[in-house]
Amino acid sequence: MHKNVDRSLTGKIGRVTGRVGPGTLGEVMLPYLGGTNAFYAHPFDKTSTFAVGDEVLVIYFEPPQTVYVDELPDVLRHGHDG
């Protein structure tokens, strides 16, 4: 049976609003459906930790409300907003 995978958030850049790490339920704000929504977040590699304010890259989206994130590659970093 083929599982329909939602890739609408894959590759999006989010901002951590609740610490993401192994064994914790983190939170990331992501652009979604024309607005910004909060999603539960877990480290994709199961070991990384991301602090509040960090930018992260969505690797996998598990509907309805969970994303797996990884470190943002240097090439995608904005530095500071503005």
Concise summary:
The chain has no helices and five strands.
Walkthrough of the structure:
The protein has strands spanning 13-18, 26-32, 35-43, 55-62, 66-71. A 5-stranded mixed β-barrel has the order 1-2-3-5-4. The termini are far apart. β2 (26-32) and β3 (35-43) form a beta hairpin. 0% of the residues lie in helices and 44% in strands. It is globular, with a radius of gyration of 12 Å. By secondary structure, it is mainly β.
Descriptors:
82 residues; mainly beta; 5-stranded mixed barrel; NA-bd_OB-fold
Q: Regarding quaternary structure, how should these chains be classified? A: single chain
Strands of the biggest beta sheet: in what spatial order?
1-2-3-5-4
Task: Show unreliable segments.
Answer: none
Structural class: mainly beta
Q: What's the N-to-C terminus distance?
A: 47 Å
Binned strand content: 35-45%
> Helix proportion of residues, in percent?
under 10%
Write down the secondary-structure element order.
EEEEE
Number of strands: 5
Average pLDDT reading: 88
Write the layout of secondary structure elements.
Elements: E1 13-18, E2 26-32, E3 35-43, E4 55-62, E5 66-71
Parallel strand pairs: 3-5
Antiparallel strand pairs: 1-2, 1-4, 2-3, 4-5
